[in-house]
Amino acid sequence: MGAIGPGRRFGQWVTAGRKPLGSGGNGEGWRVRGDDDRLGAIKLLGRGGRSGRYRLGRFRDEVRFLLAHPQVPGILPVLDSCISDDPGQPSWYVMPVAIPIREALGDDPAPGMVVVAVAEIAGTLAALAAEG
Q1: What pairs with residue 124 in β-bridges?
Q2: What SS3 class is residue 119?
Q3: How far apart are CA 39 and CA 19, in angstroms?
Q4: Which of 22, 42, 61, 121 is 20 to 30 A from 99 via CA?
């Protein structure tokens, strides 16, 4: 996949910022700006190691799940995606930039605000669990 950094193009999206939004076992997330000036967050699949095919399958399942649930409260919509079977080409998807819960609730949220936020999250998880 090559080094990810500012100015790297993925379809109509260009990475912005000097560092990733985050990273984990499956790849990295970066802030991006679209050719139409929309802001988003891109998740890029890392392909290293022997588990590359397995990880690609999981990533493909993740994108399919998100695309199948565009109107579910609490799930960010996919704005764009590219899944490649070629290990030399990146697989990625873009979504709106999420607001971290600590930022959304503020530094010292009232207990009632926290309960409402947790109830909304639990409602989304319950609905998805009922769906199977």
Answers
A1: none
A2: helix
A3: 16
A4: 61
pLDDT tens for the chain, 132 residues: list them. 446 888 999 999 999 988 999 888 778 999 999 999 999 999 999 866 667 788 899 899 999 999 999 888 889 999 999 999 887 889 999 999 988 888 999 999 999 999 999 999 999 999 899 988
Distances, alpha carbon 51 to alpha carbons 48, 64, 125, in Å: 7, 20, 28
Give the phi and the psi of residue 44 in degrees, each rounded to 5.
-110, 130
Q: 113: helix, coil or strand?
A: helix
Quote the Cα angle for 44-49-51, to 5°: 80
Place of tokens 């399958």: 57
Determine the Cα–Cα distance for residues 36 and 73; give it in Å rounded to an integer.
Answer: 25
Provide the CB-side half-sphere exposure for 94 (13 A, CA): 18
Burial of residue 105 (number of CB atoms within 10 Å: 0-12, 13-18, 19+): middle
Q: Quick count: other Cβ atoms within 10 Å of Cβ 40? A: 20
